[in-house]
Amino acid sequence: MVIPFHVTEMLRRVMARYDAEKTPQKMAPNDDAFSLLRPMRKISQATVEKYWARLRPTACAADQAELADPVTMAQAEQYSANIENFIGTVKLPVGIIGPLRLTGMNANGDYHVPLATSEAALVASYARGAAAATKAGGISTAVLYEGVIRTPAFVMKDLLSAGQFVEWVVRNVEDLQAAAEATTRHGKLVSLEPFIDNNIAFLICRYTTGDAAGQNMVTIATDALCQRIAEACPVPIEAWYIEGNFSGDKKASALGMVTGRGRKVSASVILPREVVEQVLGTTVEDMLAYGRVANLGSLLSGQLGAQAHYANGLAALYIATGQDAACVAESAMGVTRMEPRGEDLYVSVTMPNILVGSVGGGTGLPSQSAALNILGLKGAGHGAALAEIAAATCLCGEISIVAAISAGDFTRAHENLARHR
């Protein structure tokens, strides 16, 4: 049997750091006395000073001045609903792309899109895609479906009991819907779908959430629904859990890919041949040729969907506008398509899990509120438009990266804008 080279090399590196006497002692449990931080949400100058005192001597006064700067401290109370053990804020570069023209169901007009990132070349790439799409007349967008899901799990004695449990739930769905919706002014339980695995029953609870991303909203509503089941269901329940890890919350899943978790959005544009050649520096044929290879790579590697790099644009937009950045794990799924339209190029993305909101979460924080104001989408009434902008931004990224790789410019662009900046 042949042991792969990388295995032997890794063993060599591990053993080079191993000392027969010192390493076991170093890795043994250490029960020396220590003092835990107690989670606190109330923010004051005194609490900030207290936490920084704990960080000495590894963190110096200059570190404190950078994170707990005067502007941050003057607005410190605004962060109290979003974080515990507050010590300051991190400054991340923000760039804009645009104008990005959208001719959408909800987002219609020219937008400058703020993107927060430390990755050089990202904003330039998305800006190039936006320039091509806008010069082509704009991106068509539509929210196709909406539904944030939470999936509680109920454990019964056996399969028969699980079946009886589901039968009771189906007969009492209106009562359960009322219990859930009593917790929120904006959330609506639009479907409740049972899924049985032997003695365990999952309930796929799907909600519309107004203009909020709605993660906390659906959790609280589902808890009320489960409490009602626990009180009224005659079938003995051995245990229940608010989330059975079935929903795809903050992770890529086949369920999310097929049914969506959040807003499902499609965005598309037809790029004229001259735009591809003049703005993107490549040809329609070369983009299609690379697209075929990239789709094969997606298929062979087992990706959920087929796309180049949705996560880049989503993470930058989510951070800039106060979204839950961890939701990029599920939002960055979908399908990019490139097809010829005569001499021109049709490009589309369909993304089933865009979780964004124009209210709630981090959208009210000072910097994030400013970013939403740049978009003109701060506050109620803009959640669907923000979701369409998210998909359109990802479409711009797909256009640009495929053009760069097909033209052989990808490495050179990163050398010029990142390594040799």
TrEMBL record:
CDD domains named among the record's database cross-references: HMG-CoA_reductase_classI
Top-rank taxon: Bacteria
Any single GO BP term: isoprenoid biosynthetic process
EC number: 1.1.1.34
Principal EC category: oxidoreductase
GO molecular function, one term: hydroxymethylglutaryl-CoA reductase (NADPH) activity
Entry keyword set: NADP, Oxidoreductase
Family (UniProt): Belongs to the HMG-CoA reductase family.
Record-given protein name: hydroxymethylglutaryl-CoA reductase (NADPH)
